[in-house]
Amino acid sequence: SQNSLLIRNGTIVNADGISENDIFIENGIIKELGKNLSVPNGIRSIDAKGFFILPGGVDPHTHLEFEFMGTVTADDFYHGTKAAVAGGTTTIIDFMDGKENETLIDAYNSYREKAEGKVCCDYGFHMVIKGWNERIKADMETLCSEHGINSFKMFMAYSFRLNDSQLYSILEHIRNLGALAQIHAENGTIIDKNTERLLEKGITGPEGHELSRPEEVEAEAVNRVCVISKQVSCPVYIVHVMSKLAAQTLADCRKRGAQVFGETLASALGLDGSQLPHKCFEEAAGCLMSPPIRPDPTTPRFLMDFLKQGNLQVVGSDNCTFNKEQKKIGMGDFSKIPNGINGLQDRMSVVWEKGVHTGILSPTDFVAVTSTNAAKIFNIYPRKGCIAVGSDADLVVWNPTKTRVISAKTHQHAVDFNIFEGMECHGVPEYVIVNGRVCVDQGQLNIIKGSGRYLECPVFCPYVYKQ
Ligand code: URP
Ligand code: ZN
Ligand code: ZN
Ligand code: ZN
Q1: What residue owns the CA closest to ligand 1's atom 9?
Q2: Residue 296, class by beta-carbon neighbours within 10 Å (0-12 exposed, 13-18 middle, 19+ buried)?
Q3: What is the pLDDT of residues 278-332, one digit of tens each?
Q4: What global pTM score does this model have?
Q5: What's the ipTM?
Q6: First and final CA of the chain: distance in angstroms?
Q7: Ligand nearest to the Cα of 281, by number
């Protein structure tokens, strides 16, 4: 039938091992795994000989149609998820961020509305929390119990940052809800002071950005929130760990018993930040994000080793794209350059190139850090993040030897440049199956706008705190 598909002769890679099996898919679900599966006539079959079959990528860090720093991201829910599928990512978890005077429930409804009719793959949401009061407290509970939200992001930098007292209280609440706290860890007070000083000295270009927020400013915040996390017994997920010092600090806190997870980004693994200070405004502003891509050229290898060792668990994209014109808002004042970079389409290829092709990661490690670990951490496993009977049929038939050169000329994003421009990557998706439908077919993209479904992320068993 039209709703069935057979994939033959591939090497199936899961985070916990490799097997040689055929995969039979029906109505969007993996129905059977086995050797030489016999299926009725008239069913499409794909020969995956010589290819790896991977669980579709799970990117738990995207900002689509996001209003930020006086403008709105170039990638909307259509272009963002189209780019995702083209690169082998079949699930995203996006950040909802309410407007001033909007309740969290209103924000949730408005984001569902924005995404509906545009998304090309399944999507879930995290909610950003920028304050603390009874209304927010009650709405967080409703989001968990009724709307499939199990993760909340708090900022320690930017004007809307929370102080330690607020973080402590919110983490207690999140712990009681059985949810997960996500933290943007940078010391906002120090950044503001440094920014003022640099601008006064006449350092107004994009090079001022990293100078205002060096590694220890990131690492200090990581340490502080890990301490709070441990005091209140609330698990924490540090988003976008960008530096060696922050990653090491996180690992040290884990050793001391903090329940913390770490996410790094394709940008941090793929780009050698030592070149950034020498670039012109357009290129330096194009790569500008927070925390910054670090100038230390040993950073990407260090972070990749940490992924291998399990000191970091996830690679996200933090896709938050602004066009060249939008980046110019910050011409003459680096603190006004809209922060954010692309990565939704290229995350899988960049991690394969820098991780697997170099021999640091095995294919199973690759699946763990691009799909399975995020699915587990955000509680959508084994529906997502693995190839097993009963799981959603989100798969990538991956050609490890074919290469492509990343370019804005060919990418599916709406944004008008690509931070990985010119990078040659081994590892190309030949087929991408989204909910049982072939959406990349021998390299050709064939998506249906609006076909993605909202994915509820259930809370974990509520944690009962005992003194
Ligand atoms: O620079 C960044 N990371 N922009 C997106 C917003 C955030 O902090 O994740
Ligand atoms: Zn952030
Ligand atoms: Zn240039
Ligand atoms: Zn982000």
Answers
A1: 318
A2: middle
A3: 889 999 999 999 999 999 999 999 999 999 999 999 999 999 999 999 999 999 9
A4: 0.97
A5: 0.94
A6: 58
A7: 3
